């Protein structure tokens, strides 16, 4: 409501009352809020980067665990596959006949040998008796002779016993070392095809494949385990860097499996970081622009409002209210400091005629021009205001009667001699009457105004265009 009043009094200012209303309900933000908001952006950015890092690092752990699980699963499947092949042969009466009862080298080579090696990667086939005497031995598809003592070199005995003790089909698997090389081994008892039980002779069949680079490459490709590497362990110790180790039945590590997992933090961090940082920078810049722009608008608007409240829109000098405020302040100060003051009250002569003959707007121009001329002829610290329609007042600071008369006379002369520009073409002549009153050192502003007003009327009564003293 206050704003609306000011707006209607101070015509000419372009802001609407809705704008003023908005300003009142949205106070100008303090500039210190801007760095605060930007710091919040910074903190959020750091938190998001931290969160992304944390997510990626935990993903890294998951990826590592996941890969390890897949490697173990792959080797378990390999074992089961080997057991499946072994089972087919251990149940096959003809195989028992040709490998144990009447060993037939040609049959063995045709039905096991190269065929098993090429199709299933089986490098080693042994058929042996319950007292671990080898009957038929095929290595790399070829029949070779191998002694019982060589067979006993490994901890094969445990595996043999486990096969005997296990349930049907009496097949077990494990990792064993033969001739200094780790192998994936499956041992099964020969079973009777018709009776579906252990044969009375307690004979065994062993299938194994060598864990070499070639095998690991196959596992790598088949089970989609990129980067899987293999190394044998000579001293039986698990290597520090090994991610999965293959142990024999005594818990001795025979081989180490390693791989290079792609680290999500390495792979995605930079890719994620860049857009996140960019988005934050853009957001921070936009916020900065909005806040700074808004702040500047509010400042501008505030200064406009102050102008509207204190200045006369036509002449740009103090309005009545502001004149009273400043003049009262000056009287208090003069009272304290015991200095002199004088008041000039001025009124343009026959101003109505200008309005009537040339129009209100021409009258406005004369008023504005009059104010400018007066302003030029008083001192900077004098208080000048429009106190009525065509009535003006100047409070002369530290001025005695002589000084006040001198200034009043100067104004009267300047106005009288001035050719006011006019739209009609020919310049206008105006005169002004001035009433002077010197402050008595005690009186209030109203009283001083009344006395100078009376002096002004005396000037008017005495023929205008003159300076009268109260
Ligand atoms: N153009 C214009 N005229 C105004 C404004 N304020 C007051 N007036 C006019 O000023 C005139 C004052 O007339 P009067 O009070 O009769 O005084 P005067 O014609 O100046 O005659 P004296 O003062 O007796 O010399 C009136 O016509 C008012 O309308 C204003 O802001 N603009």
From TrEMBL:
UniProt keyword Repressor, yes or no: no
Catalyzed reactions per annotation: 2 GTP = 3',3'-c-di-GMP + 2 diphosphate
CDD domains membership: GGDEF (cd01949)
GO molecular function (one): diguanylate cyclase activity
One of the GO biological process terms: negative regulation of bacterial-type flagellum-dependent cell motility
EC numbers: 2.7.7.65
Domain (GGDEF): residue spans on this chain: 339-470
Pfam families named in the record: CHASE4, GGDEF
The keyword Transmembrane helix appears for this protein: yes
Cofactor needs: Mg(2+)
Cellular component terms per the entry's GO annotation: plasma membrane
Superkingdom of origin: Bacteria
Keywords on record: Membrane, Transmembrane, Transmembrane helix
PROSITE patterns noted in UniProt: GGDEF
Residues passing through the membrane, by range: 33-57, 272-291
Name of the molecule in the record: diguanylate cyclase
Source organism: Amphritea opalescens
